[in-house]
Amino acid sequence: MSTATALTEKPTRDYKAYQHPLWRRLLINREAAIIGLLILVVIVAMLTVPNFDSPLTMTFLIREIAPILLIALPMTLIIITEEIDLSVASILGLSSVVTGLGVQAGWSLPVAGLVAILVGVIAGVINGSLITFVGLPSLAVTIGTLALFRGIAVGLLGTTAISEFPEYWTDLARANIPGTPVPLIIVPFIVLAIVFAVLLHFTPFGRSLYTIGLNKEVAAFSGIDVRMTKFWLFVMSGTVSGFAGVYFTLLYNNARGDNAIGMELLIIASVLLGGVSIFGGRGALHGVIAGVFLIGTMSSALRLAGVTSDIINVITGTVLILSVVSASFLAWIRTNRIAAIGRKKGQAGSTGAPA
């Protein structure tokens, strides 16, 4: 073999050769950091906050964050595509009112619940149609539908509340898995979490969401139907929000037009804290679930410690801001490091030295 041939031949390397070791990819990332922080917060709370380690605390914690856990699943997929849905809490409130009115009209609870979920589907179709087919920005659309759906809910029920629901169903919403302090609602959540995790991380549809979030023009030229993909994401969001509204109503035995007001901020905060980029193209469901539990654990521990709700909101907002700023700062460091390495290689190449 001649010297020229040896110099021009490229060594064969596979895809894995360009990656970090598996342990590093699994342990040194944002999602692993959130899980580690969650474990740390739980340990500190158990050691310092009275009664935090009691089974009853875990029961109430999971019941409280269950609607957030449910809605955070489709919200993760939406934000990965660089969109947002601010109307989820108002859809929850509207489905709660529909459930209450249906039971009040003499419907059975399953029928009223199915109608309420259907209302959530319709709300998702409205959001998805305005965003994908009309071409309006999701932020503006969902701010408008937030007010619209909340206004309809309050208009249907006024300032009154419906609190007469079949005892069987309210007891079921508050029931635990037999022999454990874990609420039964965790079962449908686990089922939905598996479905969304498989959809996001192990299917071409999920990979297309990341592509859309990184560059929707590239996604379109790659053959991805960007409009229909986003449309179905908003339908999923409305459907799950409707189901969460039925559960919320039965859990608190209360249907009101202002149920879950402000919850959309907690949902979005949890998703962003869990490692999903607000600019799209990045995120994982296990990080989001850890983010929801982190915010819920912090709130529960602070309440048990006697901290007021205003201070809890300040702390939650501070944690969210720090998480977003830290992610942007680390990305800036990584970009500058890669640029510096590229400049060094270019300088080495220009002097004839091996890069």
Automatic annotation (TrEMBL):
Pfam families xref list: BPD_transp_2
Listed GO CC annotations: plasma membrane
Single Gene Ontology MF annotation: transmembrane transporter activity
Topology of this chain in the membrane: Multi-pass membrane protein
This protein's UniProt keywords: Cell inner membrane, Cell membrane, Membrane, Transmembrane, Transmembrane helix, Transport
Compartments in which it is found: Cell membrane
InterPro entries the UniProt entry points to: ABC_transp_permease (IPR001851)
PANTHER family: ABC TRANSPORTER PERMEASE PROTEIN YPHD-RELATED-RELATED, AUTOINDUCER 2 IMPORT SYSTEM PERMEASE PROTEIN LSRD
The protein's name: Autoinducer 2 import system permease protein LsrD
Protein source organism: Tessaracoccus lapidicaptus
